[in-house]
Amino acid sequence: VWPPGPLSPPPPSAGERGVRQRPDPRPRRGEVAMRYGARFGLANLPAEKRADRAAVLEAVRKNGWALQFAAPELRADREFVLEAVRQSGFALEYAADELRSDREVVLEAVRQHPLALQHAASTLRDDAGAVAAMYRAAASAMAVDGAQSPVFTVPDVSVQEDGMLEVVVYNLAGDSMTEVLSQDAALEELARRLMEWHGHCRDVFMDFPGHGAPSPWDCVKTLAEWTGAVIPQGEP
User: Fold this and answer.
1) What confidence tens digit (pLDDT) does each residue in 63-73 have?
2) What's the pTM value of the predicted model, to 2 decimals?
């Protein structure tokens, strides 16, 4: 008899009956809060709170779309906008006009989502050459200026007897790694190796003492070209 009396056992669950249960496709309440809380919570703040750099920065790091509710001076702050577009490329739509023309800010947005390019300034969006270079740079693992990415120092690139390049790299902790790459290896190849070594990042800074720090736009240049390593004549 159902409903049960006070001492009756509950009916068997679907699992107990051997019935396979489908997962509930609806997001859990906590997940919804994490996804939208930062965005809409910021919308409800008074104007002076939307200019609070620390509070708004925390919000955009959780949800880049929160940038739309930030004070105008924060939407014009390059470092601040970089944080937002790294979380959500589409936050580029709410950046100040001059930053939507900044190719490194746009690069970070495109790196997060390729379709974010639609929110770039027309001077970048409508230039086929610039777009091709943008996507190539975005595919590299080389960080843009202002990104919170690990830094590696490359003090030595030498040519071995077989013509291969021996590359010595140090991280900020002083740990070293030696990579052997072909003489025509590009900077982006070394960056990918370093990203894999780090294991917890999506891009890296590389500093070559005496030669400077390459940007993502230098990704196709070879290590030999960047460092001036001399390849012996007659090597393949």
Assistant:
1) 999 999 999 99
2) 0.70
